[in-house]
Amino acid sequence: MNQQPSHRRAPGAGLELVDAAFDAQQKGDFAGAERLYRALLETGDHLGVVHNNLANLLRKSARLAEAVEHYRSALEVLPDAAQIRSNLADTLEGLQRYDEAETEYRRALELQPDNPEVRYNYGLMLLATGRYVQGWTYYEARSQVFHEHGALPFPQWSGEDLHGKTLLLLPEQGYGDTIQFVRYASLLKARGLTKLSVACKPALAPLLRTVQGIDALITDPQALQVHDYWDSLLSLPGRFGTTLESIPASIPYVGVFTNRLEAWRARLPDDGIRVGLVWKGNPEHENDAERSLRHFSELLPLWSVPGVRFISLQVGGAEAEARACAAQQPTVCLGDEIRDFGDTAAIVGQLNLVICVDTAVAHLAGALGVACWVMLPHRGVDWRWHHTGVQSPWYPKDMYLFRQRDATQRWKGVIGNVRDALAAILHDRC
């Protein structure tokens, strides 16, 4: 998460220029904002604020090394600004300078131990490096950052005895988060709960009905009832003291109803290797520009591998890109007909492989135990995929991670590696 400190106003000459630069930055006029910030640096006015705001702009423009220098200059003027140190730490992390990043996070926490954004960002780094025991504690600060859950008239569960009790689990963030952490439902039920309820969006309900341990699904917020306790799905790893070695990995932990399988079977090709594709994630995600492909056509090298039938699982308007490329990239387009994750699961469950960017379908394939290759960006990789490695501890069966090594080439190298891996599999099958 890349949090930026709010614009700090300071009296005196040059304030109007500071405001103008900040406004230009907020409107997306980065070139104009940069010119104004650099002009201000020449005047010597408000140097701490200007260096900080310019660093924020540079970081957003992926000019991380330059951003680091301006954050350091800002800290020479404002050494006690915990948020600037946190932003510096996040930028250093993006440059893979992890030891320096941790030093800055710790300094920020010394200045403001209870700053939720700093605690949350530090928690993400700890989780991304596999230090789960420490990381879960700091990760809890997200509730103060995002405020996803309002006040409920019954207490949050914090590890109390659950025998004979009722518990409501609430979702957070995206669909993939729910799919990843719903694996804890059976562990909770085993603690003696009389009723385990899970709130979810309607699109997930058909999938979650297959999860062992869930007694009730609530898709209408108005239908929420009082339970003995509530908790967030994303807090469960911390409640269970999850380490890399103790991740619940009984896979598959979601299933598919027979009628759904039969409904989709006739739509799938009956020859070749069936490979599902998802090339774009949620456009509202803060890192979508990095983690999604710009266009379906970027996947063209995959069509050089013979014997593969590609199936689009892409929902939302992006599947039109595949149809526009049908001459060179023939694809069975199913995304526009998918109603919910029950349908997606029924299709994925009948595939040989899923190739996707970091989106909910990766978690779905992993939870089903279907082979999945996840293409990850150079910047802003989510903590659950860690900083390094080609496999995920959350989905140890047949999930492989293909990482961008060079931000300048974006997806070219990754897609080339995926093509080679796909060709190798086909060669071995012959």
Automatic annotation (TrEMBL):
One Pfam assignment: TPR_16
SMART domains, sorted: TPR (SM00028)
UniProt repeat feature TPR, residue ranges: 48-81, 82-115
Keywords for this protein: TPR repeat
UniProt entry tagged with the keyword tRNA processing: no
InterPro entries xref list: TMTC_O-mannosyl-trnsfr, TPR-like_helical_dom_sf, TPR_rpt
Record-linked PANTHER family: PROTEIN O-MANNOSYL-TRANSFERASE TMTC1, PTHR44809
Name assigned to this protein: Tetratricopeptide repeat-containing protein
